[in-house]
């Protein structure tokens, strides 16, 4: 999909981001969680836009030479169209700009499609967090990509 732009998330994006979050996640982040990241010096919340419409977003945290992907989502009607790839490329770019050595994320143990996507970008399972998720309670698989 051409014409996807990535930019820092703004307060004016929060309603759309929150709506996508509630639509696709069983245990969605609160609007306040996204709002807090807008003013967090260690966070770089981003949105992906197509034709001036937010179609994806991610919240990353850059701390001590590592990137933690806290959230990563593409709106259902825009999957398999290059949005996730564009956001992942932005994450890799931010990691490079900040001399990071690795990128971490957690994913629901049952979310095989997401794990396969992350594996395609070079992430590997590195551990498990028991009962990390609620609604429903589920383990998280920790995945890491060494840079």
CATH architecture: 3-Layer(aba) Sandwich
User: What is the CATH topology descriptor?
Assistant: Aminopeptidase
Computed CA radius of gyration, to the nearest angstrom: 15 Å
Number of helices: 4
The CATH class label is: Alpha Beta
Q: Identify low-pLDDT runs.
A: none
Explain how this protein is built.
- With 147 residues, the chain is of the alpha+beta class.
- 29% of the residues lie in helices and 40% in strands.
- The chain contains four helices and seven strands; from the N terminus they run E-H-H-E-E-E-H-E-H-E-E.
- A seven-stranded mixed beta sheet has the order 1-2-3-4-5-7-6, with helices on both faces.
- Helix 3 (83-97) links the parallel strand 4 (66-74) and strand 5.
- The two termini are 27 Å apart.
């Amino acid at each position: 999909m051409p014409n996807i732009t990535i930019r820092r998330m703004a307060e004016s994006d929060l309603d759309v981001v929150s709506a996508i979050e509630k639509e696709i996640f069983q245990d969605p982040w609160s609007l306040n969680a996204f709002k807090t990241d807008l003013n967090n010096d260690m966070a770089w919340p981003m949105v992906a836009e197509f034709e001036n419409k937010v179609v994806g977003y991610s919240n990353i945290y850059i701390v001590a030479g590592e990137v933690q992907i806290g959230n990563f989502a593409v709106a259902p009607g825009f999957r398999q169209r290059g949005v996730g790839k564009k956001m992942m490329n932005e994450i890799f770019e931010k990691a490079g700009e900040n001399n990071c050595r690795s990128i971490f994320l957690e994913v629901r143990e049952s979310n095989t499609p997401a794990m396969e996507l992350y594996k395609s970008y070079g992430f590997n399972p590195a551990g498990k967090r028991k009962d990390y998720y609620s609604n429903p309670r589920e383990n998280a698989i920790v995945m890491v990509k060494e840079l």
